[in-house]
Amino acid sequence: MNHTAKAQGATIWLTGLPSAGKTTIARILAGRLRSENHRVEVLDGDEIRRFLSAGLGFSREDRNTNVQRIGLVAEVLARNGVLAVVPVIAPYADSREAVRKRHEASGTPYIEVHVATPVEVCAERDVKGLYARQAAGQLTGLTGVDDPYEPPLDPAVALKTQGETPEESANAVYAVLAERGLV
Ligand SMILES: Nc1ncnc2c1ncn2[C@@H]1O[C@H](COP(=O)(O)OS(=O)(=O)O)[C@@H](OP(=O)(O)O)[C@H]1O
Ligand SMILES: Nc1ncnc2c1ncn2[C@@H]1O[C@H](COP(=O)(O)OP(=O)(O)O)[C@@H](O)[C@H]1O
């Protein structure tokens, strides 16, 4: 297939707690997809918050605004043939549903991946020290600890990252894309 002329885009949204493995899986998946000549963009929550969502905090309202902005950008990319990989917490089911609807409205594939690492494992990994800061009383409103996380009820795939390598997790997402004829 000639990917430059007729590429099929999609949004692949990786939702899950801090330190669940979203960013790691997104990077590995994106690397594999690029090596196969797909057009790929990773819309990382942390990066977007420095620019497109600068000034937004972690209230329900701000998280929703953040997720809708990212959802808009992802849908535009995906509609135009890009595989948009989105490692963003997106803790609220209604925000994720709005993003799904935006994709459905244009007939653009939207794949929801639950990076379903248990909070105890995430807190042990604590890549950015957020769980320690929350425990020390230096931070409140941490997703999964003292702020809500509404798990997806019907994700395309749920990854148990504590029992597998990051490569295996990324391969499981790739397999879903393959099943749906997107790669
Ligand atoms: N209170 C609180 N809760 C959750 N996360 C926090 C918080 N404060 C800062 N951070 C850091 O911000 C990153 C999450 O940003 P997102 O844009 O993915 O979150 S959201 O979808 O708007 O909820 C998240 O990145 P990841 O660890 O990669 O998930 C954190 O590093
Ligand atoms: N199967 C796996 N998938 C993804 N990350 C894993 C896995 N197993 C262990 N890890 C580790 O967990 C950490 C996840 O960090 P990160 O990807 O930054 O999480 P998030 O983006 O969800 O905050 C990394 O240190 C990664 O090496």
From TrEMBL:
Species of origin reads Streptomyces vastus
The organism's superkingdom is given as Bacteria
The family annotation for this protein states: Belongs to the APS kinase family.
Mind telling me which SUPFAM superfamilies this protein's record contains? P-loop containing nucleoside triphosphate hydrolases
Q: Enumerate the NCBIfam families for this protein.
A: apsK
Write out the pathway annotation from the protein's UniProt entry.
Sulfur metabolism; hydrogen sulfide biosynthesis; sulfite from sulfate: step 2/3
| The enzyme's E.C. designation | 2.7.1.25
Which keywords are on file for this protein? Answer: ATP-binding, Kinase, Nucleotide-binding, Phosphoprotein, Transferase
Provide the gene name from the record: cysC_1
Residue numbers binding ATP: G16, L17, P18, S19, A20, G21, K22, T23
Name the record gives this protein = Adenylyl-sulfate kinase
Pfam families reported for this sequence: APS_kinase
State a single Gene Ontology molecular function.
kinase activity
What the protein does comes down to: Catalyzes the synthesis of activated sulfate.
**InterPro entries assigned:** APS, APS_kinase_dom, P-loop_NTPase, Sulf_AdTrans/APS_kinase
